[in-house]
Amino acid sequence: MALTLTINGATRIVDAPADMPLLWVLRDVIKLKGTKYGCGIAACGACTVLVDGEPVRSCVTLAGDVTGAVTTIEGLAEDGVLSAVQQAWVELNVAQCGYCQSGQIMAATALLAGKPDPDDAEVTEAMDGNLCRCGTYPKIRAAIARASALLKDAA
Amino acid sequence: MGLKRRAFLIGTALLAAGGVYGWRRLTAGWGDPFDGRLTRGETPLTHFIAIGDDNSVTIVCPQAEMGQGVTTTLAALVAEELDLPLAMVTVRHDIASGAYGNVEILRDGLPLATDGRSALGTLWAGVAETIGPALGLQVTGASTSVRDGFERLRMAGATARALLAESASIELGVPKGSLAFSDARIIHQVSGRSLTFAEAVSRAAALPVPSEVRAKPREEWRILGNPQTRVDGRAKATGQAVFGIDVDLPDMLHGTVVLAPRAGQTLAAQDDSAAKTMPGVASILRVTTHWGDGVVLLADTTWTAFTAAEALNLTWADNGSTADDASVAAALDAALDAGDGWVLRETGNAARALDTADSRAVMRLAYEVPFLAHATMEPMNATARLADGLLDVWAPTQAPSVVQFACARALDLPLASIRVHPTLLGGGFGRRAEADFALIAALAARETSGRPVQITWSRETDMTHDVYRPAAKARITALPGDDGVPRALSIVAAAPSPTRSIAARLMPSAPVAGPDRFLAEGLFDTPYALPVYHSETVDADAGVPVGFWRSVGYAHNTFFLECALDEIAVRSSADPLTQRLALLERDVRARGVLVRATERAGWKEPKEGIARGLAFCRAYGSDVACVAEVSGTLDALTIERLVLVADVGIALDPSLVTDQLVSGAVFGLGAAMHQAVSFSDGVPNETNFDTFELLRLSGCPVIDTEVLQTGDTPGGVGELAVPVIAPALANAIFALTGERIRSLPLIGRVTFA
Ligand code: FES
Ligand code: FES
């Protein structure tokens, strides 16, 4: 079945069943491998992408239900220039194994888009569904603060 | 005896290579690991470094990058010797070869002579025997990755520098001593003339390898010892990093595997009529490995394979494990009752001291911990292709050698016909030292006429088919003394032996005899000068496959020992810090971390509403102490802060060392607070992150760290912090509430605020 999806600014006609989760359409059909499979039940956040700027768990979002514009980790940098969140992530060496980090960065991107200067509680609320087995939580907190500062400087 | 001696000789040869680096000789028997793998007109200088004609410098990282930052540190070792900015070094980790065998892990894992019993049948020796005469065990574990690379990469860098300098000196007709290195150029400082590495490399590669090279002394380090930007940071922040699950080959089939629900269970009947006809399903195959029976589904996408797996109707024979929590406890108790374990440390006669003491003075304590899952964030997976008799395996593996060995056995192929391409690992923690995930992909590839297959496990399959951290129980008997120093202490711990369990999967025919150090570590090797001490470990088969889990035996044994010491201190009205310092009277380094950690935490200054607990551990060549601070009540407990101080000898990259301490602390904290894998009729009850809880951001306390460096070699750090968290917390909870918690996870007795 042909689905029409807008992914990272481009419209794609994709041959996939409508009930296939967006995660697997991205990974195995479109071959955008940056979005990760972790649990398949919306319990880890590794598969987080943005749909019209809102963070969604792509493992439980059926591709046929997606009408908005999808942004994945591959869509954040523009012409090789990292987004502020990515920049902060690199600067602070946040990633360890890195497997959860696409999801973390997408969740942080959505948070800062809505709240450019989040307090600790807001960060916790926005990020608590994103698990990191490597324990990068303290750095994630620090990198969100750093990204917030970078965004302020750029504004 | 033959095997042990051989292992020792080879180990010695490699270690001696720190002084005289004969890399060509070392790779003899393994071939050139670069063979067929070079690109862009690259020329190898040593088997770790290749120079491209575009002046690129590429190094091979023989260790698995699973988050610890080993690629960054190994690149820094070479960059330092060549006076290159770190950013100019490209790292590849996709080459596996026996030439990259891990010397440190052999040293750690080699059998113990401590109890006088032979241990020749232990896993490492057995695998090494089978793998080949040169003992090429390329494995990442036991926190050895940087320790192993430290000498070898520096010496490779120094050798490459000597060869490049010699080449340039001939080319420019100037003495070597007048040459400087900068940004991949060799410069004659007086005349300003220079050569690029690319211009110097072909002559350099033809020169005889110097018999002796000297690495830069530490005082001249400019990169090492300083925090670096991770070389993999950008790829991991942009979705470009390739984990095993991201490998994508032309014409590849995606698949998954359904494994027997119980350990040891075989498939009796398979009804795949519904699954087979689902659109996109290519084939359904039965696979049998020593890890268990399973059915592989191959399809156009992973999702199709997952969906088809649910439509399978499988009947399993009635021959699997029936383990449940009661049977596990009974097996451990039975082993403790039977005794006759491995006694790896015996100082004085603890039995007599305890038997003859006034029984009212003797403390008898029972401790226990549950099975735990690894729960790597990236589920198990691998990709394989078998074409023209050649097997290629792309796998997020900690042990390319083990993968190669297991595939050779199962597919009846010579080792030379198997190429392992390690990818990045989405976490390892010991789980990826197994070979099951790679083997299943290889077996499936046998049935696809040369088409590559990628097998991705569902999270549920991953969690319910782990090789678990052993459940363990300990019986501790102690006679308290002055200052909290026990006059006699006996710790007898029972748990299933990971070495026996691993050997049964990897080499079922090989006899495993002798002590398993991985079961006993943390008890027999503690630096505490216990005046009368009996440390005994009993192997107990509980019908559950077990394996190496981050910090292995230290994880449970440190909980037993450090909590017991705390109980003894309390009974003797001694301060737990004073007690430990008394037990470490002559151990300057251990005292150093304890003193510093307690200073940082303000151990001697009481804080209103806050209680503290202390724990210490020596492992992997490093020392660590933790002070946990808690507040509240058993019904609403808050972990306020963890203070961790480690002495790692040398921190080649202090920022990565700190990250690993924090990582280990979070890992240990999740386990201590929440985690357990329990069984019902042989089947694990925890199946996904909804039931096996990882620590979340909201549960992560302030973690304050300090890294001390009082040595001249880097100690291991990847696992170091894990063992001290649970005992520090349990001891703090006692100090706060008077409740002594002797079993994990804490959630059974505590509610976290
Ligand atoms: S994979 Fe979607 S939340 Fe875990
Ligand atoms: S960095 Fe490894 S899971 Fe988060």
Q: Mind explaining what this structure looks like?
A:
The complex is a heterodimer of chains A (155) and B (753). By secondary structure, chain A is α+β, with helices and mostly antiparallel strands. Helix content of chain A is 36%, strand content 15%. Chain A has 2 domains: 2-75, Ubiquitin-like (UB roll) (Roll); 84-154, DNA polymerase, domain 1. In chain A, strands 2-1-5-3-4 form a 5-stranded mixed β-sheet, with helices on both faces. In chain A, a hairpin with a 2-residue loop joins strand 3 and strand 4 (54-57). The mean pLDDT of chain A is 97. In chain B, 33% of the residues lie in helices and 21% in strands. Chain B contains 22 helices and 27 strands. Chain B has a 7-stranded mixed β-sheet, sandwiched between helices. Chain B is globular. Chain B starts with a helix and ends in a 16-residue tail after the last helix. At the A-B interface, helix 1, helix 2, helix 3, helix 4 and helix 5 of A face helix 8, helix 10 and helix 21 of B. The complex binds FE2/S2 (inorganic) cluster (2 copies). One FE2/S2 (inorganic) cluster sits between chains A (95-101, 132-134, 136) and B (67, 377, 427).
Keywords:
heterodimer; A: 155 residues; alpha+beta; Ubiquitin-like (UB roll); DNA polymerase, domain 1; 2 domains; five-stranded mixed sheet; 5 strands; 36% helix; B: 753 residues; Aldehyde Oxidoreductase, domain 4; seven-stranded mixed sheet; 22 helices; 27 strands; 33% helix; globular; binds FE2/S2 (inorganic) cluster
